[in-house]
Specification:
Elements (H helix, E strand, L loop, with lengths): L2 E5 L2 E5 L9 H16 L5 E5 L4 E3 L4 H6 L4 H16 L4 E6 L2 E3 L1 H7 L3 E5 L5 E2 L2 H4 L5 H10 L2 H10 L2 E2 L1 H6 L5 E3 L4 H10 L7 H10 L1 H7 L8
Parallel strand pairs: 2-3, 3-5, 4-6, 5-7, 6-8, 7-10
Antiparallel strand pairs: 1-2, 8-9
Helix pairs in contact: 1-3, 3-4, 6-11
Length: 223
């Protein structure tokens, strides 16, 4: 399960050492960690990271297929997490040390910055290949954080971007060796700890107002 640590003014949330899929218990744990970050006072920033082969493989499809009557509530909770991260009143950095797929890739886009391993691992939106359409909120999130050309390619072709290609497409902000991913993310976050607070939250909320409204739609989240 996710674990929250603090390095001076930078909170580090380790998402886990498996595929880090969005099981309901995992979602609850991440939201509890974000509660702690939000309740803290003074300068602070947040890095999310993981341990092992994956940053996150996204939706827990095994759980979802076993609970088909809960699909709408599940999507509401996932998109609620995206909205929360997108508007969090602290600077956020995703440290992508491994594969970052599907909703895991969308979760990374909800951060302010992304640092990715340069030599191995992929960032990918595979929905076109696995025949699962993007929910309206997910589409809005992706389109709000990527250029139109990159969003189109990523969403319609399911391209797997390595670190260098992801950097060239402006999906990530840094591409570094494996052993530097987390440290680079922490240092990037540390330079922005003074931004934390209500003003930053308001700026983000207005900057991404359209995407946030769609992500928070509880009436028809599946479109």
């Amino acid at each position: 399960m996710p674990m929250l640590d603090r390095q001076d003014d930078v909170f580090v949330l380790d998402l886990g050492d498996g595929e880090n899929r969005f099981h309901p218990d995992w979602l609850t744990s991440v939201n509890s960690a974000l509660d702690e970050v939000e309740k803290a006072e003074g300068p602070r920033a947040l890095v999310t990271a993981a341990t092992g082969k994956f940053y996150s493989n996204g939706l827990d499809l095994d759980w979802l297929f076993a609970h088909p009557d809960q699909d709408q509530d599940y999507v509401i909770s996932v998109q609620g997490l995206f909205a929360r991260m997108l508007s969090l009143p602290v600077i956020t950095v995703a440290a992508l040390q491994g594969h970052t797929f599907a909703a895991g890739a969308m979760f990374s886009l909800a951060h302010d910055f992304r640092v990715m391993r340069a030599d191995r691992g992929y960032w990918c939106l595979p929905e076109a290949d696995i025949n699962i359409p993007f929910a309206p909120g997910m589409s809005a999130l992706i389109q709000s954080r990527l250029t139109p050309q990159t969003a189109h390619e990523a969403m319609t072709t399911a391209r797997r971007y390595g670190g260098g290609d992801a950097l060239a497409a402006a999906i990530v902000d840094r591409a570094v060796p494996e052993d530097a991913v987390r440290g680079t993310a922490v240092e990037l976050a540390r330079t922005q700890v003074g931004k934390a607070g209500p003003t930053l939250g308001t700026i983000k909320s207005r900057l991404y107002a359209t995407a946030l409204e769609t992500l928070r739609n509880r009436e028809n989240p599946l479109g």
